[in-house]
């Protein structure tokens, strides 16, 4: 005798950890965090064996531009949280507004990143110190660019068509990835811009 089950009441899409896409995003952030940890370990290894850190001709990085940019990034968490909540409510207009806001804040942070590179006072090939500083900034910049591209794609979809239920998961994961961009930059900011000032 065969048994059948009525699944008509189950949702077409889920917007949380029951989704495989959710776990794919989480695993990706774990991998990226490991890459950052390796770069930071290399930074401190090079600092340990260096005779002078930073090299005298480079000097310590400037703090003004990086600190302003950090504040921009911290404020950007507000629209990311609002995007997350709007996605859970399936609020199309709210999702569109917060995707625009995320794109604006991300672009502002990316422009500020140019000034952060300048604040290092060295080119990537000047020394081991310069190379690891540029590498850490570069790694975080790739995550930033990835997030901005994702945001632009999700926003274009929400503007072009009426989204289906599962597209709200895409919007929610855009916010989750932005949390990752913010959370990882805080310790990296300390490593790149503050620790070279310590003797």
Structure description:
- With 199 residues, the chain is an all-alpha fold.
- It has a single domain, classed as Cytochrome c oxidase, subunit III, four-helix bundle (Four Helix Bundle (Hemerythrin (Met), subunit A), Up-down Bundle), CATH 1.20.120.
- Helices cover 72% and strands 0% of the residues.
- The protein is built from six helices and no strands.
- The longest helix is centred in the C-terminal third of the chain and has 33 residues, at 128-160.
- It is elongated, with a radius of gyration of 21 Å.
- The mean pLDDT is 89.
Radius of gyration: 21 Å
SS-based class: mainly alpha
The shape is elongated
How many strands?
A: 0
User: Can you tell me the number of structural domains?
Assistant: 1
The number of helical segments is: 6
CATH architecture: Up-down Bundle
**Kindly state the mean pLDDT as a whole number?**
89
What sequence of helices (H) and strands (E) makes up the elements? HHHHHH
Let me know the CATH homologous superfamily. Cytochrome c oxidase, subunit III, four-helix bundle
Residue fraction in strands? under 5%
Low-confidence runs of at least 5 consecutive residues: none
Main sheet properties = none
Q: Write the CATH fold name.
A: Four Helix Bundle (Hemerythrin (Met), subunit A)
Q: What is the CATH class designation?
A: Mainly Alpha
What level of helicity do the residues show?
over 70%
Alpha-carbon distance between the two ends: 78 Å
Helix/strand layout:
Layout: H1 20-49, H2 64-75, H3 77-88, H4 92-119, H5 128-160, H6 167-194
Helix pairs in contact: 1-5, 1-6, 2-4, 2-6, 3-4, 3-6, 4-5, 5-6
